[in-house]
Write a structure and sequence with these properties.
Elements lengths: L6 H12 L10 H9 L2 E4 L1 H9 L9 E7 L10 E8 L2 E12 L5 E7 L32 E7 L2 E7 L11 E6 L3 E5 L13 E5 L15 H5 L1
Antiparallel strand pairs: 1-2, 1-10, 2-3, 3-4, 4-5, 5-6, 6-7, 7-8, 8-9, 9-10
Amino acid sequence: MIPAISRVALTVLLLHTLSTVGAYEDLTSKEKNFLSALNGYFTNTKQILEEVQSKSENIHPFSSVLFVPYKVPALPERPTVFFEQRFVDSVYRRTVAYVSEDDQGRVILELFDIPIAENDVPGSYGLENLNNLKPEDLSSRPECSVVFTEVSELKFDGHWPDCSRDFAGARPYYNATLTCRSLIAATHSEARENSAGAAYVQILETEKFPSPYYDNSDDPCAKSN
């Protein structure tokens, strides 16, 4: 069973992305690899079950991340990905990630946060709302961008500062490793999600969503299986 988002909601997402599939001529090979990996619904359900079965003293709380490639009209220049993170039973973050490769060959995600209502539940945000966003509705903090480096084919190591609140000193960082089928994220000691310093191991639970940025018959992750 998929715990965070209903299969009906995922089917709606699938049908919508199918209706917007197309090509994106300026996509670099590294951006294409990254967008293929950063796609789907990932949870740490398997990790939790293994911790329960082994009677671990530190059992992770439930966490999930949903990544849906989606063309946001207000951000037409580069590929965008809708991102929603669930922590325990609430929406922890909801954002649009603006994806680009910099002149050092790194993949940069500039994040545009979407407000979360007090009664919002995971999977309740309609992607059609992204079509109504105007440039003036969107703001980001470049210093809070996520930086990923492709360390091997379809494997990316990344890091980003915790910009959720102010800290007395320098902002602590999150670190993550992304592949086609997993997202392993390490928190810092002051993070809300911190669980005895152990990383969250989130595994892909669904098929990849069709991408509007490349022909899905040429999907890098599908070709690597």
